[in-house]
Amino acid sequence: KKKVEEDHAKSSSLLLASHGAQAFIDNVLDLGQLVPESTHVSSKSPQRFFRIPEVSIDGDFALLTMLPVSAVSGIEVFDTDADQWFRPELLAAQHHSQQQQEQHGVEAEEIPWYCRYVVAMAGDLMQIVSGNKIHTGIHRVLSPPPNATRYSCPLMLRGKEMEILNVTRYLGPDDKDNDVLRHVNGMKMVDIHKAMLHKDGKVYFGNSNN
Questions:
Q1: Of 87, 110, 183, 188, which is most buried with the most CB atoms under 10 A?
Q2: Of 125, 88, 142, 122, which Cα lies nearest the Cα of 203?
Q3: CB neighbour burial string for 135-164, b if at least 16 within 10 angstroms, e if fewer
Q4: Do 55 and 75 contact (CB within 8 A), yes or no?
Q5: pLDDT tens digits for 69-86?
Q6: Residue range 12-51, pLDDT digits in tens
Q7: In terms of DSSP bridges, do strands 118-122 and 151-152 run parallel, antiparallel, or are they unpaired?
Q8: Cβ-based neighbours of 196, under 8 Å, separated by 6 or more
């Protein structure tokens, strides 16, 4: 009987989490829905196309950033555990080369190798809603070699600026020991972004060191 009760409680918890996650997707995330022109509101989940001529270090205020691999390698992501930068595009190139060797150079499809890979990075919003369990993918883009141009077309899945983050509704009962979730509860997404700071790979707010 005790095991049945435990299984029921676990199933109920998973169901509530599933409903909360769906509500978060429906209400908080900006999925690029069309809006009336009279509102002058544009999507905050952009897909950009640009080239970066010099080094820049950044962390995206997004739930997730999806970056198609470029033919010219340049993006580096910081590994906090190893305390060093690594280059996912080079790993993709190595993986493709290994596949080619295993297939004896036979191409399954007539498309460029780099079109087969995408770099996925957690953003600040993911770090916030996970209570600092999943850290932002701090990354930088290096200058391309001479006479080469690096093109980039990232898609950043962001929250709606004026939507309020209700931690209890979307993420479950507020964890009183989690300073991040306690701080953002009831705040608009735009205010969370303005108040947020980075330090040692974690998210902080204002001048707080908690």
A1: 183
A2: 125
A3: bbbbbebbebeeeeebebebbbbbbbeeeb
A4: no
A5: 988 888 899 888 888 999
A6: 555 556 787 888 888 888 876 655 554 545 556 666 666 6
A7: unpaired
A8: 61, 124, 128, 203, 204, 205
Report the distance separating Cα 170 and Cα 209, nearest Å. 26
Around 171, how many Cα atoms within 13 Å sit in the side-chain half-sphere?
A: 21
CA 115 to chain centre: 20
C-beta atoms surrounding 118 within 10 Å? 14
- Tokens 């790979």 found at: 201
DSSP three-state, residue 120 = strand
Sign for the CA dihedral angle at 128, 130, 131, 137 comes to negative
Q: Which two tokens stand for residue 5?
A: 């009760």
> How far, in whole angstroms, is CA 79 from its chain's centroid?
15
Count of beta carbons in the 10 Å neighbourhood of residue 190:
15
Q: Which residues pair with 164 in a beta bridge?
A: 188
